[in-house]
Amino acid sequence: TMNDRKTIDLEQGWEFMQKGITKLKNILEGLPETQFSSEDYMMLYTTIYNMCTQKPPHDYSQQLYDKYRESFEDYITTTVLPSLREKHDEFMLRELVKRWANHKVMVRWLSRFFHYLDRYFIARRSLPALHEVGLTCFRDLVYQELNAKVRDAVISLIDQEREGEQIDRALLKNVLDIFVEIGMGQMDHYENDFEASMLKDTAAYYSRKASNWILEDSCPDYMQKAEDCLKREKERVSHYLHSTSEPKLLEKVQNELLSVYANQLLEKEHSGCHALLRDDKVEDLSRMYRLFSKIPKGLDPVAHIFKQHVTSEGTALVKQAEDAASNKKAEKKDVVGMQEQVFVRKVIELHDKYLAYVNDCFMNHTLFHKALKEAFEVFCNKGVAGSSSAELLATFCDNILKKGGSEKLSDEAIEETLEKVVKLLAYISDKDLFAEFYRKKLARRLLFDKSANDDHERSILTKLKQQCGGQFTSKMEGMVTDLTLARENQTNFEEYLSNNPNANPGIDLTVTVLTTGFWPSYKSFDLNLPAEMVRCVEVFREFYQSKTKHRKLTWIYSLGTCNINGKFEPKTMELIVTTYQASTLLLFNASDRLSYQEIVSQLNLSDDDVVRLLHSLSCAKYKILNKEPNTKTISPTDHFSFNEKFTDKMRRIKIPLPPVDEKKKVIEDVDKDRRYAIDASIVRIMKSRKVLGHQQLVMECVEQLGRMFKPDFKAIKKRIEDLITRDYLERDKDNPNLFRYLA
Angle CA(125)–CA(129)–CA(131) in degrees, nearest 5? Predict the structure, then answer.
């Protein structure tokens, strides 16, 4: 029982404990000593237990707690420190690692012997635990004295490794673990006593390296070295530094190697970013992206140079096309068309090339997409030889989509090319102008059966719709649908004729019925139709009214074609002509010789039209009419007669009528539409805002309309004035720059 137990006094108890501690020290020092048996361990544990549970004044807990600490202090001062002080550099590091490992073993054993203190005495008095006391002794006595020396030795080894020497990485890992463990859960010792100096040394090391490399190396070589260094520093962390050091270490290296010399590097004369782009050094550009994306704002200058480069390449294409066009101006008109075709092709190739750079070298980064877009916007909005880019693109599409165009492509290639044209359209500010030119050319393809493939026509409309919205393509889609309906209508007309023998137009007649709103505007009701044709028109009108009561037909003779027989002396020939040309020739059935004035009054056409017609029939390749005097130009005093002697080796000939140059009309039409668009936009904005300043109104208007065209500030100002006179808006009486909406 408790009472029978003999009281152990301090001296005698401690003497027994001291033997156990000495045995432990001997084992650690590697002296011949037997290992602890479980009986030894139990005896030591029980002695402490007994000395702590005796009645006061024999409860020696406090004294034992102090002696526990003194055992460490004594061992460190007499054995550990002397052995460390006599060694240096790597030897000192090895000794330290060994001593720390031993110390941890000693703490483990002693804290087990004295375990009873931990459970009651320490817990009750909130004192530091035994394990902590053990580690603190090492920290205060060994670590505080040596950490600076250790740090310098470690940094010196790291620098040796950077210079390519082999070092003992495991040793460094063990030493640095001491800095971490000594913090007992906190990183402050590692960070303050080692990491800060190591980072400073790293910065200085790479600063020295970079200052030499930047002078000696080309940009790609320098980047290669920088990338290797970063890779090696990353490995260094995984081998022996603490993982938290990685971002700080890489930041230092990137700063010294890249941030400091960024501009010098990018602008190196024969090997900087410009040169890499010029020489298509894809791999180096990818490396440049990888490196510069790591430093703050590092990609901005790269993207800027990329934009400059693409802009200058594109501008060079424009100039090249300009020069080619002006060289060919003296020669034939068609060749200029070819030049423009080549120009658009080259722009598409340029876009393909640099889009691949953005996706591959620059990892699809938005900054580079933006640079590419801005660069293309610069030169895609320059015209070539008096044609705007909008017109060039429309002509390019026309060439691909019409029969007998200059581009001979497979279906896949056509699809792909159209896809690319639509992408280019995104960079063009006058999208409405493109739409109008495109519509004009689409109309010619559809009406004169020039379209090579219906699927392609619909496919590009789908692409345009995705790019520019439904409003952009609604008329064009209407045109394509119209033609299908017109074919059905013609079939119905033919059935009607076969069922009604009285309804006989006298000649074969094909009518294409179109919806007014979808198609470009054409002149109508201007020609005095020849008697032969009047009957046809009547018959068709009767048929159409039998189908629908509420639709009005407007005949557009300027788009019609006719096949007529010419009875010439050598032989009878079939002539393929326009309705206008046919009407002119049919006048000569009634008269042998007609003056210019007589022809004008009988046809009821404008002078411009008549001059064009007569030129095509009397001065061009096929001279169906003789002209007096026989000159190359038509004048109001000329006389014309049927050329009976005309012949040609073909039985059937097509007499071309050069089309009116529609460019001016297209531009006028677009301008008119723009005026309406600006009006509508201003009214929409003012309706919702009620009162708005001039600057603000203009900016919102530009933003609203920017998807279709870039409105001119002057034009907006003019429209505002016009809306004021039409009482949609009023000016503020006190502030002329303020507008009010009048409901």
Answer: 165
| Rounded CA separation 231/241 (Å) | 14
Residue with tokens 């649908």: 481
Contact 297, 304 (CB under 8 A): no
pLDDT score of 62: 83
Distance CA 562, CA 560 (A): 7
CB atoms within 10 A of CB 301: 16
Q: How far apart are CA 390 and CA 387, in angstroms?
A: 8
Give the amino acid at 721: E
Determine the angle formed by the axes of helices 219-239 and 282-292, rounding to 10 degrees.
50
Q: What is the pLDDT of residue 330?
A: 57
- Tell me phi and psi for residue 486, to 5 degrees: -65, -35
Beta carbons of 452 and 408 less than 8 angstroms apart: no
Rounded Cα distance, 626 and 618, in Å: 6
pLDDT of residue 4: 55
CA distance 707 to 710: 8
Q: Cβ–Cβ contacts within 10 Å for residue 213, how many?
A: 18
User: What gap in Å lies between CA 682 and CA 722, rounded to an integer?
Assistant: 11
Whether the Cβ atoms of residue 439 and residue 394 lie closer than 8 Å to each other: no
CA-to-CA distance for 205 and 156, rounded, in angstroms?
Answer: 11
Bridge pairing between strands 729-731 and 738-741: antiparallel
Which residues neighbour 489 within 8 Å (Cβ) at sequence distance 6 or greater? 511, 513
What's the pLDDT score for residue 406? 65
CA distances to 434, 505, 556 from 549, in Å:
37, 21, 20
Q: List the chain residues with pLDDT less than 70.
A: 1-5, 329-337, 405-407, 525
pLDDT of 332 reads 54
Residue type, 200: K
| Structural contact between residues 313 and 371, judged by C-beta atoms closer than 8 angstroms | no
